[in-house]
Structure formats: structure tokens, C-alpha cells
């Protein structure tokens, strides 16, 4: 959990920026780039994790080996969005779910190894109780 009154200093922000670019960067390299010892960087990263600021380290897969889509969802008003989103999160290939305001209740970013697999996954989402409608856009290319 993030402490309400914890302010990130410029060193913390630099650590976060460097880890966003390369989550596997060794603490020694981080230290060289920001002028701290390996031990000092290790302590700061641990503190950022304990405070919930750094929640996870992940990898990014080359999208050239996948097909991705953005699914815009509308939920039935009688259903709790949290329950629906929990079920959607269990569908294979779901990478990110954003709850929204406005016309759509949520957006799902989903990937698969081929179009037919993507279609099966979208069908699974459509079948979840409480999903009223979906609108899908297949990603043609990633700009940045």
C-alpha cells in the first residue's frame, strides 16, 4: 500500500525511470547511472517495493509474434463491475484491463498467437455474465 505522505525524491524518480526502461538492470548499473552504491540502490528499491510504489517487474514480449486487440466493453447496469472484471482477468491472453467512465465501462487489451485463438478468447469474454456488449479493434501495428 502506498503511504499517503511519502514524497518521491529525484533519486527515487530516476530509479523508477531506469527500471521502466529495463526492469532487469542490475543494482550496480543503476548505482553507476545515478551516483549511488549498489547497496544504497538495493535499499531504495526495497523501500519502493515495500511502500507499493514498485509493484512488479515484468517483461515485454515482441509483438511481432502475437496478434493483439482492444476490446471496448459495456456491462449490464445491474451487475457489479468488479465481479465482471475478475472473470475477464482469468481469460488467457488478457494483458490489461482499464475501468472507464463514459460510453464504455472497460477496455481490455488482449493477445493471442493467431487470429483464431484471439477470436476464441473474445468469445469467452462475450460469454461472461454481465457483459452486455463488446466492440473489438485488432491492433495493426504498434507505434511506440
Describe what you observe in this structure.
This protein has a 4-stranded antiparallel beta sheet, with helices on one face. It folds into 2 domains: 1-59, Orthogonal Bundle (Arc Repressor Mutant, subunit A); 63-138, 2-Layer Sandwich (Alpha-Beta Plaits), CATH 3.30.70.920. The model has no long low-confidence stretch (mean pLDDT 88). Helix content is 38%, strand content 21%. It contains 5 helices and 4 strands, in the order αααβαββαβ. Helix 2 crosses helix 3. With 144 residues, it is an alpha+beta fold.
Characteristic terms for this protein:
21% strand, 5 helices, 4-stranded antiparallel sheet, 4 strands, alpha+beta, Arc Repressor Mutant, subunit A, 2 domains, Alpha-Beta Plaits, 144 residues
Number of DSSP-assigned strands: 4
- CATH first level of the largest domain: Alpha Beta
Q: Number of helical segments?
A: 5
What count of structural domains? Answer: 2
- State the helicity in percent bands: 25-40%
Give the overall average pLDDT.
Answer: 88
CATH fold title of the largest domain: Alpha-Beta Plaits
Please write the string of helix (H) and strand (E) elements: HHHEHEEHE
Task: Summarize the structure in short.
By secondary structure, the protein is α+β, with helices and mostly antiparallel strands.
Q: What layout of secondary structure does this protein have?
A:
Blueprint: H1 10-21, H2 27-34, H3 38-50, E1 67-75, H4 81-89, E2 94-99, E3 106-112, H5 115-126, E4 131-138
Antiparallel strand pairs: 1-3, 1-4, 2-3
Helix pairs in contact: 2-3
Amino acid at each position: 500500500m502506498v503511504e499517503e505522505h511519502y514524497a518521491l525524491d529525484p533519486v527515487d524518480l530516476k530509479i523508477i525511470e531506469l527500471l521502466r526502461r529495463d526492469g532487469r538492470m542490475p543494482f550496480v548499473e543503476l548505482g553507476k547511472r545515478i551516483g549511488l552504491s549498489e547497496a544504497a540502490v538495493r535499499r531504495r528499491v526495497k523501500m519502493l517495493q515495500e511502500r507499493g510504489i514498485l509493484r512488479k517487474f515484468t517483461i515485454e514480449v515482441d509483438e511481432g509474434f502475437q496478434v493483439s486487440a482492444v476490446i471496448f466493453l459495456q456491462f449490464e447496469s445491474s451487475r457489479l463491475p468488479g465481479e465482471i472484471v475478475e472473470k475477464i482477468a482469468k481469460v488467457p491472453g488478457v494483458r490489461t484491463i482499464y475501468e472507464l467512465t463514459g460510453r464504455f465501462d472497460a477496455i481490455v487489451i488482449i493477445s493471442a498467437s493467431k487470429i483464431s485463438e484471439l477470436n476464441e478468447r473474445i468469445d469467452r469474454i462475450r460469454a461472461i455474465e454481465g457483459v452486455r456488449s463488446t466492440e473489438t479493434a485488432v491492433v495493426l501495428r504498434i507505434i511506440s
